[in-house]
Amino acid sequence: MKLFGNHIKANKNNKDMVNEIDKEPILEKAVMPPSEPVDNSGEKYTCKSCGAETPLTEIKRMMYVCPNCGKHDKISARRRIMSVADPGTFRKIKNNIPFRNPLDYPDYSEKIAGLKSKTGLDEGVLSGVCEIEGYKTVVAVMASEFLMGSMGIAVGEMITSAFEIAEKMDLPIIIFTASGGARMQEGILSLMQMAKTSAAAKRFSENGGLYISVLTHPTTGGVSASFATLADVTLAEPGALIGFAGPRVIEQTIGQKLPEGFQRAEYLEEHGFVDGIVQRTEMRDTLAQLLRLHEKRRKSWQR
Ligand SMILES: [Zn+2]
């Protein structure tokens, strides 16, 4: 069975990849609703920022961006993929990462099992291959609904394997980050994922791959200090908190008051840390445009 269309052409390694995929599929059809079911309950969504009420159907159509104040609320990893991928094109990367509890952290195993069944996710990342306006790409989304998208061994491995699959398939990679940082239940092993994912990003970059990072609220700790900020193009959602340590900790450490808007996406864009701030409703078009430009550049190289 061929899982991929005709994108595999230029790179000589791709031929082997097709065979490899034919033998043992690395992608599987994900359980994704083709579109949002219509909600007739008359239920309303209340904005956490301005308090405005919006019908549930409307706020879902707006991808949880408040039509009154523009506040971008958190969305699940699945909904995030639905917001950018062409309908029906997403194929999930298979993950067979065994659960590990290196510190014998109390109740950790039960917590992870509960979250897996509640969210339907393998771990704190949902990754796969999809098309965005016809451009094929690897996409990985950190799931804030899974222990705040914290990075442990499994998350580090899933991000790394997404880079490796993008490289093998000669595709760009887009990573949506949302994370509270390292996963305390895994101690030092979670911190080691910073080096692992950074090395994967570096290797991917050295081979000429395009990496787009989209920082969403919040992207902090070890994720912001590793792969999230190593992309070729770094985008952010409006109002997203992006930083390493929290503002209070920094203020206490340096003994100074921090400037207004410190660690917000807009402040970081002003200071050159973020390339652009993109509204969620325009994310799909923006990503498609970047993928198109990259494709053009690649074609001109190959000529
Ligand atoms: Zn609002």
The low-confidence parts are 1-24
**Average pLDDT reading:** 88
Oligomeric assembly: single chain
What proportion of the residues is helical, as a percent range?
A: 25-40%
Number of strands: 10
The ordered H/E elements are HEEEHHEHEEHEHEHEHHEH
Question: In CATH terms, what is the fold-level topology?
Answer: 2-enoyl-CoA Hydratase, Chain A, domain 1
Question: How would you characterize this protein structure?
Answer:
- With 303 residues, the chain is of the alpha/beta class.
- Helices cover 37% and strands 17% of the residues.
- It contains 10 helices and 10 strands.
- The chain has helices at residues 13-23, 56-61, 77-84, 108-119, 153-169, 187-206, 221-224, 247-254, 265-270, 283-302, and strands at residues 27-29, 44-46, 53-55, 91-93, 125-132, 135-142, 173-179, 211-219, 233-236, 276-277.
- The strands form 2 sheets. It has an 8-stranded mixed beta sheet, with helices on both faces. A two-stranded antiparallel ribbon has the order 2-3.
- A hairpin with a 6-residue loop joins strand 2 (44-46) and strand 3 (53-55).
- Helix 5 (153-169) packs parallel to helix 6 (187-206).
- The protein is globular.
- The structure holds zinc ion.
- Zinc ion (ZN) binds at residues 47, 49-50, 52, 66, 68-69, 71.
- Residues 47, 49-50, 52, 66, 68-69, 71 line the site of zinc ion (ZN).
